[in-house]
Backbone:
């Protein structure tokens, strides 16, 4: 605990020092000098870009800024974010999961974050933000952040097709067939080296694979609607429990890596690239990244991708919220309205087509090559450090999405098809954007209770009666109050929609 407290204090001190430097730089910067911006966001690679990167410098030149990015590994990003919010001394811009996370909602209520809704109409790109998504990220009807737009049908199943072919198996269509593939990849030596050194599914701390599979079993996406038209948390549905039993089974049989509760999500891809695991449940785009890396590690490896498998309720896919993170602008880092407009101008320029192309794809002939108008990615490991563009795409709001190359790789074209097909079978969260004061206050604790209970159940440390007792503890600790408040907000939304749909009668 002493070490943990030291780490928290050190992280807070580091962030405060960076924020202090940003304030000094702002005072020294002249009217024609690049505007200094400090930004906290997540990195997914082990070597995120630095100021030595040519791509980084091109972003600064285009936006006329002096950019200081504070990277934090995705696996521990929420801890870093919460430390920052609790400190009250924030960088100018900070990425958060969404604005209803308790620590974020609390910071907004305390007046630490700029309301930006009234300013969006001043900017050519930001003014095109989707009103529905803005509604989902709003707090008490006000907009405090710039969302990072992403397709809702992104989840996909990436797998080693060469392993599947070697074992004379077909792409799975059902949950049972999916289980059979995981078992074969674990027990039937798919790499042909004569050693028992493979397993089916790569998993990490990141909970997305479990969430994707829960939906296959018929569980809702975070919240469902019961027979009385009331919202109910996913963990109180029988379909959720059925999915947990499946997870427990594949864990007990060694079809997933046993260290998943502590496995760093920034190294998640390594399990497939190294040839240890054969399947990965993530966004469909992951297939393209795996293909690029495997070209170096194993030229004979083949990656393929599809959307979902059929369960007891048919073919279903988890829907994302239509965005992946929100950028907030802090009042401790940005003191005046003039500075606020400069920061919003920076975020707006990132949406210009040249910036979208640069941040999304990198540099031509360095990060990708073109063939008759089609783009092919080059392995990042061959890129000299000064050209490093890793994780800079995290800056992209994509409002609106202006540039899209045709992919030269058949797999990357298939990724686009998977995402489009998923849009027809996605299961959305009916409580998206609804607010609960109790969740704002206790949500972190309540979410941790469910997350820990799921892990303990999957790993066989607790059985069904003990899981039920943990659910009851969740209710008593504030869960019942959250359910009540979310349903109250749900009724208000339904009534408002009903009134807006009623025809106007002229008297």
Residues:
């Amino acid at each position: 605990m002493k070490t943990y407290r030291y780490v928290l204090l050190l992280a807070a001190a580091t962030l405060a020092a960076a924020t202090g430097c940003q304030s000094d730089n702002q005072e020294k910067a002249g009217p024609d000098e690049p505007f200094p911006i400090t930004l906290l966001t997540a990195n997914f690679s082990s070597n995120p870009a630095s100021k030595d990167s040519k791509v980084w410098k091109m972003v600064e030149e285009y936006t006329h800024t002096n950019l200081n990015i504070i990277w934090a590994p995705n696996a521990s990003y929420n801890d870093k974010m919460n430390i920052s919010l609790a400190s009250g001394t924030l960088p100018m811009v900070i990425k958060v999961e969404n604005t209803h996370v308790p620590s974020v909602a609390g910071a907004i209520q305390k007046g630490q974050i700029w309301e930006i809704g009234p300013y969006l109409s001043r900017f050519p790109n930001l003014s095109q933000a989707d009103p529905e998504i803005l509604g989902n990220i709003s707090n008490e009807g006000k907009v405090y952040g710039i969302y990072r737009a992403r397709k809702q049908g992104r989840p996909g199943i990436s797998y080693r097709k060469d392993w599947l072919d070697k074992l004379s198996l077909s792409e799975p269509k059902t949950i049972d067939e999916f289980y059979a593939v995981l078992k074969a990849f674990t027990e039937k030596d798919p790499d042909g080296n004569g050693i028992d050194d493979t397993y089916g599914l790569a998993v990490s701390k990141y909970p997305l694979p479990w969430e994707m599979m829960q939906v296959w079993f018929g569980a809702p996406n975070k919240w469902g609607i019961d027979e009385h038209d009331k919202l109910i948390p996913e963990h109180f549905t029988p379909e959720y429990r059925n999915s947990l039993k499946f997870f427990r089974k594949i864990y007990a049989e060694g079809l997933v890596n046993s260290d998943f509760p502590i496995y760093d999500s920034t190294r998640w891809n390594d399990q497939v690239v190294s040839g240890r695991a054969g399947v990965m449940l993530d966004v469909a785009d992951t297939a393209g990244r795996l293909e690029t890396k495997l070209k170096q590690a194993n030229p004979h490896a083949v990656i393929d991708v599809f959307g979902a498998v059929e369960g007891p309720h048919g073919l279903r896919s988890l829907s994302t919220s239509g965005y992946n993170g929100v950028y907030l602008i802090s009042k401790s880092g940005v003191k005046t309205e003039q500075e606020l407009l400069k920061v919003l101008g920076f975020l707006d320029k990132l949406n210009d087509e040249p910036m979208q192309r640069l941040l999304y794809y990198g540099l031509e002939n360095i990060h990708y090559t073109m063939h008759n108008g089609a783009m092919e990615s080059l392995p990042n490991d061959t890129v000299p450090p000064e050209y490093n563009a890793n994780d800079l795409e995290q800056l992209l709001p994509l409002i609106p999405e202006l540039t899209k190359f045709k992919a030269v790789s058949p797999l990357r074209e298939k990724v686009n098809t998977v995402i489009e097909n998923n849009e027809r079978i996605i299961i959305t969260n009916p409580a998206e954007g609804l607010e609960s004061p109790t969740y704002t206050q206790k949500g972190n604790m309540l979410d941790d209770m469910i997350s820990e209970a799921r892990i303990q159940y999957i790993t066989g440390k607790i059985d069904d009666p003990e899981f039920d007792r943990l659910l009851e503890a969740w209710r008593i600790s504030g869960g019942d109050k959250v359910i009540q408040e979310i349903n109250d907000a749900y009724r208000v939304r339904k009534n408002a929609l009903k009134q807006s749909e009623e025809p106007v009668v002229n008297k």
DSSP finds 16 helices and 18 strands in the chain. The chain has three domains: 2-150+322-400, 155-318, 437-449+467-501. Residues 55 and 200 are 37 Å apart (CA to CA). The first strand starts at residue 35 and ends at 43.
